[in-house]
Amino acid sequence: MALQTKVEYNYDEEKWVFKPIGEIDIYTSNEFRDNVLKAYEKKNADLVIDGEHLEYIDSTGLGALIGLLKIMQDTPYKIYIENIKPNIRKLFDITKLDSLFIFRGESDEQ
């Protein structure tokens, strides 16, 4: 399945919002990362990954997210993840990556 990513800047929250539609996998993870980086380089800000229409993410997709974290590690900006399906959330839990990202709308949001 292909990937489309809607990108918008939320001026009220001062955050980039990315809405991936489809799958972030070995075939699409570089495209997703490049779209996010292009926006982030245009204006440094927090990133929100809205997973409402994200159907699947594999290890290369997770790797793309980790790569974004590494780029942002020495900045005050954070990556938020929201509206993800339970099977995708479980993947973050199993890989212990749930501690690296902020999940919005959940009790563990910081």
From TrEMBL:
GO terms for molecular function: anti-sigma factor antagonist activity. CDD domains: STAS_anti-anti-sigma_factors (cd07043). Belongs to the anti-sigma-factor antagonist family. It comes from Soehngenia longivitae. Residues 17-110 form the STAS domain. Pfam families: STAS (PF01740). This is Anti-sigma factor antagonist. Transmembrane segments: none annotated. The lineage of its organism: Bacteria, Bacillati, Bacillota, Tissierellia, Tissierellales.
